[in-house]
Amino acid sequence: MKHSILALTLIGAAAAHPTAMLKKREVPQEHSHRNIVNAVNDLLFLDNPDDIQDAIFGLLGAAAAANGAGLIADPDCLQQATADQAFTNAKAIGDIDGLTNALIFRALERNTGQVGLASVACESIQAVNPEIAALQQHQDPAGEGAVALNKEIASELARQIASIGGDPLLANEASTFEPGQLDDATAAGNTCNDENDDEGCINSLGLRVDDLSEDEILAAVADVDGAGAAADAAADAQVDDKKAAADAQVDDKKAAACNAAKVNNKAAKAAEKAAKAHAK
C-alpha cells in the first residue's frame, strides 16, 4: 500500500510458520473470528504489496504483530492496513461480500495482555479507503466504558456496510465475548481460540455477545444512502453478466432458427422433387 513507511526485519520462523508463534500468546483469541480472517486472507493475497504475512497478525498485540507486519512499520496499524488492502482488492473486483468482510475485520477486537486492557489505536497511518478510516477495533468489554464504545463501533460498522451496499445486520459479526473478570490471573477472560474452526469458535460455541439489536442497527443506518461506488461496480458486473447471458440466448435462438430454416428448405426441396417424379 502507498502508506507504507519502512520494512521491518521478519523473523524467519514466524514468517514460515506463523501459527507456531501464535500458540505462545498468553491471551489467545485471535482465531475466534476465523471465518472473517480466512475471508480477508483470500482478498489480501490477491494483491499484497506490503508483504503482510497473514491477516491473523493484525489481531495480535504489537510485539507479536511485528513478526508478520511485512512493510508496515507500526504494528498497531497492521489490522487497519490489512483491512484497507483487502477492501481495495475487493473493490477492484466488485465484491460486496469481500468489502463487508474487510470492514468487519477492521472492527474485530485485538489481543491484549490483561483482561479489560484496551488495545492501542492506529495513529501513524491513514487508511486509503474512507470506509476503513471511519472504523476502529472493538475493545475488551471488561474495560471501563468498553461496552458502550463497542456499541458505537458496531453502529458505525453497520453504517459503513450499508454505504457499500452490504447487509448492515452483519455488523454483529464483529461483536466480541462476554466481559471477563478484571482479577483473572490467567488473563484469558471468556474467550476461545481454535485455528481449525473455520466457522469461528466464537460463533460455533455460541460465545458471541451481539452489540446491537436488529432495531438498533436499522436505526443506525436509517440515514445512509444505500450502495456506494463499490456497489455500483458490483451492479455493473452483474449487468455485464446478464447482458452476456442474454446475448448468448439470442445467438442460440438465431442458430436454432437458422437450422430450422435449413431443415424446412430441405423438406420443401424433397417434396418438390417427389411431386415432379409423381407427375412423370
Structure description:
By secondary structure, the protein is mainly alpha-helical. The chain has 2 domains: 12-227, no CATH class; 228-280. 48% of the residues lie in helices and 0% in strands. The protein is built from 11 helices and no strands. The longest helix has 51 residues, at 229-279. Residues 1-26 and 227-235 have low confidence and may be disordered. This is Cell wall protein. Keywords: Signal.
Task: Give the helix/strand layout.
Blueprint: H1 12-16, H2 18-22, H3 34-44, H4 62-65, H5 78-92, H6 96-106, H7 130-133, H8 146-163, H9 201-204, H10 214-220, H11 229-279
Question: Keyphrases for this structure?
Answer:
single chain; 280 residues; mainly alpha; 11 helices; 48% helix; 0% strand; elongated; signal; Cell wall protein
Number of strands: 0
Q: Report helical residue fraction.
A: 40-55%
Q: For the residues shown, what is the average pLDDT?
A: 82
Gyration radius (Cα, Å) is 27 Å
For the largest beta-sheet, the strand count, sense and barrel status come to: none
Q: How many separate domains make up the residues?
A: 2
Give the number of helices. Answer: 11
Uncertain runs: 1-26, 227-235
User: Order of SSEs, N→C?
Assistant: HHHHHHHHHHH
Q: What structural class results from the helix and strand content?
A: mainly alpha
Task: Give the overall shape.
Answer: elongated
Query: Could you tell me how far the N terminus lies from the C terminus, measured between alpha carbons in angstroms?
Result: 87 Å
Strand content: under 5%
